[in-house]
Amino acid sequence: MDPFMLMAIAIIVALLFDVMNGFHDTANAVATVIYTKALPPQVAIGMCALMNMVGPFLLGTAVAKVIATSIIPPERLTIAIVIAGLMGAIIWDLITWYYGLPVSSSHALIGGLVGSGLAAIGISGVKWGGLTNIVLALFISPVVGIALGLAFMYLIGRFIISRMSRERAHSIFKRIQVLSSAAVSLTHGSNDAQKTMGIIAMFVAVTYNSTPVIEPWIVVACAAAIGLGTAMGGWRIIRTLGERIGKEELSPSQGFAAETATALTIAVGSHIGAPISTTHVISSSIVGTVMAGGTGVLNKEVVLNILTAWVLTIPVAAVGAAFSYFALKLVGI
Predict the structure, then answer these.
(1) Are 328 and 123 spatial neighbours (Cβ–Cβ below 8 Å)?
(2) Taking the alpha carbons of 33, 39, 45, 50 in that order, is the dihedral positive or negative?
(3) pTM of the full structure
(4) What is the DSSP-derived secondary structure letter of residue 251?
(5) Alpha carbon separation from 171 to 34, 48, 156, 175, 240 (Å, rounded)
(6) CA proximity to 166, closest of 252, 91, 278
(7) pLDDT of residue 101
(8) How far is Cα 136 from Cα 122, in angstroms, rounded to an integer?
(9) Mean pLDDT of 193-213
């Protein structure tokens, strides 16, 4: 196949993954603001889509550079490896969306790249040192999310809610929760959209035998794709985060605490180039805010199902990507 035609096909697949990422991860920013009734659903999703598009332009592209250079050795990279990695991630995203499980598109993508790299090249097909740093960031960030969500909820309860009526507190936090939800969407765009920017930069580098560079057109295309996916809305996962983690409805103060914890964690990750999972951070932050009322109010079965899906994401996406790679080779790609 003509290399430029192959690059074009690969870029389309990458942008489809970005649409899926936005569709799958809409719940990250809007579940809490919808279920606390701070915003109507369509307004919340529209705001989320817009802020996802703005994020990469305001907060830089450090994460994209890490994805482009730190998983597969650039000199061993082929477009088939990256397409297969994307296919493994897309398959897992679709499965978990169907079951309403808020898993990480970031984990799925990284697992997919690892699986296709191993299938194509073997052990040397993965930069294990760079991968270790990425995986550490992915697994540390949910712990930070739980800690910050719990801390913010404690401080809010101790110094704000205790000094006013419940109705007054709800009214205040409904208003300011709009800002915290927008902040999550902004930082989500600055981190998650960048992963696909790094992938497309890989395609261009392979085709032209050059070093991966994050060009402005790549930023525009990926920001638009994730914004489109976000606008479509992933209602199954929105319901899980909004209704099922706790045994009681989320309060506006809990929503604000979880979103603020998430936005801070992701902003730091984007600044240092750490490709962390927005899904994991917001889920764990919600768990932290719910735990502020005691672990008895957690829906432990749902939390266990989410954790199981998290553990399975990287290996299952890797296996799917490996099979996808062999399938691509059979059809001559």
Answers:
(1) no
(2) negative
(3) 0.82
(4) P
(5) 15, 22, 14, 7, 24
(6) 252
(7) 79
(8) 23
(9) 82
In three-state secondary structure terms, 298 is strand
| Three-class DSSP labels, 203-248 | HHHHHHCCCCCCCHHHHHHHHHHHHHHHHHCCHHHHHHHHHHCECC
| Six token digits for residue 194 | 């960048």
Answer for the pair 52, 230: CB distance below 8 angstroms, yes or no: yes
CB atoms within 10 A of CB 210: 11
Count of CB atoms situated within 10 Å of the CB of 98: 9
Distance (Å, whole) CA 255 – CA 265: 15
pLDDT, position 64:
76
Burial class of residue 87, CB neighbours in 10 A (0-12, 13-18, 19+): buried
Residue whose structure tokens are 């993508």: 109
303-315 tens-digit pLDDT: 888 888 888 999 9
60 is written with which tokens? 């830089």
Q: Are 261 and 148 in contact (CB under 8 A)?
A: yes
Q: Are 265 and 281 in contact (CB under 8 A)?
A: yes
Is the separation of the CB atoms in 26 and 238 below 8 Å? yes
Question: What residue type is assigned to position 62 of the chain?
Answer: A
Side-chain half-sphere exposure of 6, counting CA atoms within 13 A? 20
Max avg pLDDT among 43-52, 123-132, 240-249: 123-132
Distances (CA, A) of 121 to 72, 230, 316: 10, 35, 19
Q: What DSSP string runs through 167-185?
A: HHHHHHHHHHHHHHHHHHH
Distance CA 109, CA 57 (A): 22
Structure tokens at 221: 């295309």
Q: What does the angle CA 253 – CA 257 – CA 260 come to, to the nearest 5 degrees?
A: 135
**Angle formed at CA 207 by CA 85 and CA 94, multiple of 5 degrees:** 20
Cβ neighbours for 73, distance < 8 A, ≥ 6 positions apart: 124, 125, 127
